[in-house]
Amino acid sequence: MNSPQFNEALEKLRKASRKVEVLKLLLAGYTNDEIAQSRGRAEGTVRKQISNVYKDFGIKSEFPGDRPLRDKLKDLFLKYKPEWVSNCSLAITNEASNQPQKINYDGVTSLALSDDEIVEESGEELMFLAINILEALGFEQKFKMSKTSQDVGYRLKNLENGSNPYQLILSKQKENLSISIPLDILEPHLLNLKYWEYTDVLEDIDLFIKGRFWVLPSKKDIFLESLHLNYWQILQVEGKTVGDCCINTRRYKKDPPIDVISFAMNAYKEYERRYIAISSITLEEFNPETLSDANAYLVVNSDERFDEKWNMWKVSINLKEALQDFLSYFGKILMDKH
């Protein structure tokens, strides 16, 4: 492979973040099994990805007993992109000096991906990673795991009367992982956006929750800096990422008449409840998916699979960083509570 061919192959590979991650780990000297562990994937999946990397760069065995393919790949990068090999080798050397027999998950992630590279995982890969995260938290000490082909549920081992049996449910989708947790666990940590809206029952306006969100603690600044203009004045000024916040305001329909104020205070109290909503954004314009940087927060929705008694709410995750943050955060809360 000559230099133009190499550059063309590398440029094409840069568009596939998963391949970039595998490539850098290969150049760093990780084995197939180590790459699979560090990325939370099955080894068979990793072998296929590695095979595709070799194919992209024209790496193949020429004859029986030929040199290992990964050595050929390394030589190719030493020739045309030596800084990739030296940087990766340095990273693994430093890591190995601290923990020679163990791969540090966070270290591998930072090695493999730059800040602007976002890797979306499949539901199966995320399920595998989620189970490992919960195992690392010691979830099996207090919760019993139940599995089906699509779901993994964690039940309390010492269930009290009237308690919700399931405290966390993982549900595998094709492109993401759904995680359901009781609302009473989630609620104190959520950002609730409310909206003043007219209701026929009261013949007046009332306050309704229109969106629940969990902002990743590690991305709070990004969330606030990237807010959609519709919410900038509402959220960014206060720096608010937890608690209740109204996305519109209200005022009296009109001033009450003088005689009501002077002679009938009861009537005045009735009158003052008649408000109108003043909105800088309509409900049609309100879109939970475009609140801010999509990687800085998760939308929380009711899980309709469970009855009201359980009151389970869910998030859908397709990034392993968000999965790590969410499960580490709420997993510890569940462990401490029970």
UniProtKB/TrEMBL annotation:
One of its GO terms (molecular function) is DNA binding. InterPro entries: Sig_transdc_resp-reg_C-effctor, Tscrpt_reg_LuxR_C, WH-like_DNA-bd_sf. This is Helix-turn-helix transcriptional regulator. GO terms for biological process: regulation of DNA-templated transcription. Residues 17-61 form the HTH luxR-type domain. Pfam families: GerE. It comes from Nostoc edaphicum CCNP1411.
